[in-house]
Amino acid sequence: MAVIVGQRRVVRQAQELARQAECHSKLV
After folding, report:
1. Which pLDDT tens digit goes with each residue over 1-28?
2. Cα separations in angstroms, 12 against 7, 16, 19, 21, 28
3. In b/e form, how buried is each residue of 12-24, taking b as 16+ CB within 10 angstroms?
4. Residue 6 phi/psi, 5° resolution?
5. How far apart are CA 14 and CA 8, in angstroms?
6. How many CA atoms lie within 13 A of 19 on its CB side?
7. Which of 23, 24, 2 is nearest to 10 (CA)?
């Protein structure tokens, strides 16, 4: 269970980073 939660957290972080990068590229 803990491993799955950790993986979910990593996936969420990756999605947030991708979203931030997308917004940044739109601003630039």
Report:
1. 678 888 999 999 999 999 999 887 777 6
2. 9, 6, 10, 14, 24
3. eeeeeeeeeeeee
4. -60, -45
5. 10
6. 6
7. 2
Q: Hunting for tokens 């993986």 — which residue is that?
A: 7
Instruction: Assign 3-class secondary structure to 1-28.
Output: CHHHHHHHHHHHHHHHHHHHHHHHHHHC
Total residues found in the chain within this entry: 28
Distance CA 18, CA 6 (A): 18
**pLDDT value for 28:** 67
